[in-house]
Amino acid sequence: GNGVSNVWIPKGGIMSTPAVSAAIRRREGGQAQGGIVLTASHNPGGPGEDFGIKYNEGYGQPAGEEFTEALYAKSLELKSFKTVENSSDIDLDA
Fold first, then answer.
1. What is the mean pLDDT of residues 87-94?
2. Rounded to whole angstroms, how far apart are CA atoms 17 and 81?
3. pLDDT score for 44
4. SS3 letters for the chain?
5. What is the pLDDT of residue 38?
6. Judging by beta carbons within 10 Å of its beta carbon (0-12, 13-18, 19+), is residue 74 exposed, middle or buried?
7. What is the C-alpha to C-alpha distance for residues 86 and 92, in angstroms, rounded to an integer?
8. What is the largest CA-CA distance in the chain?
């Protein structure tokens, strides 16, 4: 429903911004149209403004200001988020 076809999670769940850009350029033969990056340091938003959402385009470069401002505005509309309860933990170091 939202157009996201793959979710990539780095080993340990943490990845530097340059490494994210490189992954967007190289994963799956460079076919990604871009990547949504969840970060504590860019475009704070959401409940308590405790997380941010950044979008890197297909070559790994940050999206333009018009796009990021619209994304930021949308993040301010978030009132809640859902989690899965009673599920098994996922080993991010696997």
1. 81
2. 24
3. 63
4. CCCCCCCCCCHHHCCCHHHHHHHHHHHHHHCCCEEEEEEEEEEEECHHHCEEEEEEECCCCECCHHHHHHHHHHHCCCCCCCCCCCCCCCCCCC
5. 79
6. exposed
7. 18
8. 40
Instruction: Write the CB contacts of 81 (distance below 8 Å, at least 6 apart in sequence).
Output: 46, 47
What pLDDT is stored for residue 41 in this prediction? 63
* Tens digits of residue pLDDT in 15-72: 888 888 898 888 888 888 888 887 766 556 666 776 777 788 888 888 898 988 887 7
d(CA 47, CA 65): 23
User: Please, which residues have CB within 8 angstroms of residue 25's CB and are 6 or more apart in sequence?
Assistant: 32, 58, 59, 60
* Catalytic site positions: 41
Distance CA 7, CA 70 (A): 22
